[in-house]
Design goal:
globular, alpha+beta, homodimer, four-stranded antiparallel sheet
Chain lengths: 181, 181
């Protein structure tokens, strides 16, 4: 246990890729969404949108779309591949593409990850959902995912209860911090 | 006070633009840096670098560079403008520009912001440091800021003790969350 609960949650958060078959409670979903929308954004523009997906059929449709995109791009994956690791909840972030929109998305998605950790939930940030659009009409996919007109899919995050051994932290790279005192 | 300390820190974090003339303790700096480097990154590549700047002269040099860049671009600012709001500490993030580097930077900088809040410190994420490079040789600026070769400045964040009234949360935009259940 570190200095305080918050820092403990930040330092013990891991990307979790195995989830129990157990839904995320509604009250926790609301806290995750609130945490996301209270992230900072450049000039406080908040030009982001969150689609909270607890519907298995939709999650499976997205998984198929990602796999088709990967096939089209010749990206290898094993037979058991599931882009969302069978998580019970996926949140898709989309943005109006202005300056810093990807940085804003990072802040929002990290808030979700840290908030989830504090609630006993785990997450994995998923960039591969971008492959859904490969060779497809984006209008159809954005309609499926309720992404507003003028917004583009940015990143997604899985949420659920970790199953099995909790992942160890990967080693951190050396020589990535310098000081000017 | 919200559900738990972590969510409380996430929801009560504000961008602070007035700082007391009081340095950030060394032990807190170490926790902020550790929080940053424990952020997730795409494929766990960790191709980021952090320059922790507590030296007033360097902070002032950066401030002048930003203002010169803004002048060159014709961006208005008032006479009292200080890009770092006279904060005692600035952390500069730079990245090797690969896929998702800006998203990664968002996760790392948000970890710093949340960790700082938990330590009684406040922050403001600063994108305007990009203006330092306007009309300048990037090699000189990267040398000043100890940014490694092949890395590019991404974003910076001020850290310090808030002075004066604590900012209220700005209203959140409506209709930015949809559910698929």
């Amino acid at each position: 246990m570190y200095e305080n609960e918050t820092i403990n949650d930040i330092l013990t958060r891991r990307s979790v890729r195995k989830y129990a078959d157990k839904p995320v409670p509604e009250k926790d979903i609301e806290l995750l969404v609130k945490s996301a929308i209270y992230a900072p954004s450049a000039n406080n523009k908040q030009l982001w949108h969150f689609t909270v997906i607890a519907d298995d059929d939709t999650i499976e449709k997205m998984n198929v779309l990602v796999k088709e995109g990967m096939d089209e791009l010749g990206i290898e994956k094993d037979d058991a591949f599931h882009v969302f690791h069978h998580a019970p909840l996926v949140i898709v972030l989309s943005s109006s593409l202005i300056g810093f929109s990807e940085l804003n998305a990072g802040c929002a998605v990290e808030n979700i990850a840290i908030a989830a950790k504090s609630l006993g939930l785990d997450t994995c940030i998923i960039g591969q959902t971008r492959y859904m659009y490969q060779g497809k009409d984006p209008v159809d996919i954005n309609k499926l995912l309720k992404i507003p007109e003028g917004y583009e899919h940015d990143v997604s995050i899985t949420v659920g209860y970790a199953k099995g051994d909790y992942p160890e932290a990967k080693p951190r790279r050396k020589n990535i911090v310098d000081y000017i005192r």
